[in-house]
Amino acid sequence: MRIGIDLDGVVIDSEKLFRTYAELYDINYLNKDSLINKEAKKIQERYNWSEEEFLDFAKKYFVKISKESNIMPGFKKVYELLKPYNEFIVITARGNLIPGMIDDGKRILSENDIVFDKYYWSSVNKEDVCIEENIDIMIDDDASIIKKCAEKNIKTLYFRDTGLKKLEENKFITEINNWGEAYKILRKTKNK
Length: 192
Fold this sequence. Notes:
The protein is an alpha/beta fold. The chain has helices spanning about 15-30, 45, 50-70, 75-80, 100-110, 125-130, 145-150, 180-190, and strands spanning about 1-5, 10-15, 70, 85-90, 120, 135-140, 155-160, 175.
């Protein structure tokens, strides 16, 4: 089975740090309380910030947050169990805005002895990469990406963190909240 996999919020536990630093930046640096959509994953959709404020946040904090991030709980064990029977292809937007994020992503994976079969960094249209790579299941934590993949008949696992937008499940969208749930679904899919 060919599994497409996002990094941030799926393999690398960075999303809670992004949200924490965004709150601190909004309150302490901008002297605002501009949260407008608590369910949005992307910082630029969560806050009523100008493009300049968002870019300033990204430049100041994206690499810092990455350096403080760790592998998601349970990921490495599940990966080790699934890897002998599956191909894992990273399809991530990481590096799209701040190129240094790619090197730090590589560092985190290397330090944890995690090697994937193929990497697509700075990917904006993940659904197109999924089609090109003949992905059987895409795992992502971004509701908009999950919906785009599902619209192209790509099965997805929506790695939904607490508070993020809920999606209606269907034959192309299944919600998971941890790597144990992912393992159960991926094992069942393999055996079909």
